Amino acid sequence: MNLITSIWNVMFNNILSQPAIFIGLIVVIGYILLKRKWYEVAAGFIKAVVGYQILQLGASALKNTVDPLLKGIQQKWSVDAVVIDPNFGLTAANSALESIGVTTSFAMITLLIAFVWNIVLVFFRKYTKVRTLFTTGHIMVKQSTVATWIIFLLIPDLRNMGGIILIGLLCGTYWSVFSNLTVEATQELTEGSGFAIGHQQMLGVWFAYRFGGLFKGKEKKQEEKELKLGGALKVLDDYVVSTTLIMLLFFGVIMVILGPDLMRQVDEANFGNLTFPVYIFQRCTSFAVSLVVLKTGIRMFVGEMVESFEGISGSILKGSLPAVDCAATYSFGDPNAVTLGFLFGALGQVIAIVGLLVFKSPLMIIPGFVPLFYDNATIGLYANMKGGFRALLVCCLGSGLLQVLGSAAAIMLFQMGPFGGYVGNLDWATLWPAMGAVMKYLTVPGAVVCIIGMLIIPQLQYRRNKKDYFTLGMED
Known about the structure:
Blueprint lengths: L1 H15 L2 H15 L4 H39 L5 E3 L1 H14 L5 H19 L1 H4 L3 E3 L2 H18 L6 H20 L2 H8 L5 E2 L4 H10 L27 H20 L1 H7 L1 H4 L4 H38 L7 E4 L10 H24 L6 E3 L1 H45 L7 E2 L3 H39 L12
């Protein structure tokens, strides 16, 4: 038993919790199955790992740009509340598990069971209709930990290995089914690039794709969905320029309200000896720089992964697609949709937070960067593709509102307030509270109902498009 535990710890610490290595190894397996030469396999591994690390660098830089603002807002108005962000949610879930005397290693066993179950569902795709393998390891770690706490809280009798197995089946079904929901949408957005989304707003992606077209104007030409401007404003067609100017308008106003003294206090490393106007400009341009870095990494790792996955989908898991980080879509569609989706999602969150203050909510929500940016930027891309600017506006405003209000309900249901954090992404502010309510009142049968209910979804998808269902995203 100790040997098995040691092997698992090595695998988890060095592979599953290291998404760049995890992606790189998938590329290696794919290229080996494609019978590539050893040096091509090695080159693919390096490019995939480096590409993903570049993506992580850009994502970290984006977060570092926004974090001082969130801290400044928290200090300015003396707000002490729960932060909705998966990083805070992971820490909170670990603390919650420890508070009931449960080792957090249980959550890692949940992850393993969930991943194996995902593979099983794809292997038997002829019957399950599941086509996607969830490959975003860092997301899997956070979700499996939070899900373990949720079930252990709602069904105390399951605080054992039997419960871990059930939680693994629940998580694995969610990863399989909801990443599978994004296949059609992502193939249309990326013009058949051969991947799906494996993140935490998959239900939102499906909704934007399925209903975004309802919000478009009378004209139906594709080019009219693009966020194009004329005259002097045509410079905003360049996403680097538009991102910088929009951030100046959005972030700049907030920074001016917070004032130079507070911004220097919360961001001394970047403020330094700069004047306040130069500091504001530098912070806003850094947002655009981070997006350029992020997109560079995306092009590197997605290209290698999609190509190598032909080997996996052509042999071991025929007809399957990798489900990757939502950021992989940011090199497709209208680049301005990424920035505008983020801003309108942020506006929706602000409206919801003001509502909580007005109605004297006992729980106050602090926005976290991951739901704020990644959910809304991603949903904005898909909504704009289907219905143009109106769809982007409606879907992202709605997403922001749901992220705050749904998370508030989830935090109370899952009793995460005392631990200071919750996931906050759209799926975890809508789908998971709904499943939590079912499991709270129906206990184990409720969990089984949730699993069966999710497994029905790909069957319905298949019935809509039997002819091309297993060939979407596949090379001819």
